[in-house]
């Protein structure tokens, strides 16, 4: 059961059956180290969905994909995850080649195609605007959470 959902209640249901009042839902994986200031920074951006980036097990890449490149996936068995160099380049005001910069007006935010749920904050109203199931498995061997990002396309991940 995810967010108090019950498949027997059909697709028009709300998180926790609308019995719990909340403003945000925060996902934090058990292996994520963070400070209260980092959590507060996510809140302060006041976005429907926002995530802090975090290193994957290899210590070289982040659980974040800038561009959804299925050809790259087919050739490599995974997407091209962002690296420290990518983040530095994308967030830099002058270190980016023309047309490559995807920075949002908010400082330190980068629009991405996918990011993991390891340190993600979602405002009330996001799940309420979607039909259940909120996380639908997809045919490709990618994962259900990636599908969720695609179901809320107007959000700057």
How would you describe the overall organization of this protein?
The protein has 157 residues and is an alpha+beta fold. The protein has one domain. 21% of the residues lie in helices and 15% in strands. The strands form 2 sheets. The protein has a 3-stranded antiparallel beta sheet, covered by helices on one side. The relative contact order is 0.22. About 6% of the residues have low confidence.
What's the short version?
The protein is α+β, with helices and mostly antiparallel strands and 157 residues long. It has helices at residues 36-45, 70-76, 84-91, 144-151, and strands at 24-28, 49-51, 61-65, 81-83, 114-115, 119-123.
Notable features of this structure?
single chain; 157 residues; alpha+beta; 3-stranded antiparallel beta sheet
Q: Topology of this structure?
A:
Layout: E1 24-28, H1 36-45, E2 49-51, E3 61-65, H2 70-76, E4 81-83, H3 84-91, E5 114-115, E6 119-123, H4 144-151
Antiparallel strand pairs: 1-6, 2-6, 3-4, 3-5
Q: Strand order of the main beta sheet, please?
A: 1-6-2
Using only CA atoms, what is the Rg?
A: 17 Å
Strand content: 5-15%
Runs with pLDDT <50, length 5+? Answer: 96-105
Structural class, by secondary structure, is: alpha+beta
């Amino acid at each position: 059961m995810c967010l108090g959902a019950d498949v027997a209640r059909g697709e028009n249901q709300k998180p926790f059956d609308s019995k719990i009042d909340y403003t945000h839902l925060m996902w934090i994986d058990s292996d994520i180290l963070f400070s209260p200031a980092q959590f507060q920074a996510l809140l302060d951006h006041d976005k429907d969905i926002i995530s802090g980036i975090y290193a994957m097990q290899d210590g070289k890449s982040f659980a974040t994909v800038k561009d959804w490149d299925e050809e790259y996936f087919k050739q490599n068995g995974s997407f091209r995850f962002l690296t420290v160099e990518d983040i530095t380049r994308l967030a830099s005001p002058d270190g980016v080649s023309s047309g490559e910069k995807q920075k949002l007006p908010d400082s330190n935010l980068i629009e991405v195609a996918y990011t993991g749920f390891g340190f993600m904050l979602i405002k009330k109203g996001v799940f309420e605007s979607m039909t259940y199931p909120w996380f639908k498995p997809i045919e490709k061997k990618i994962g259900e959470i990636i599908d969720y990002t695609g179901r809320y396309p107007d959000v700057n991940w």
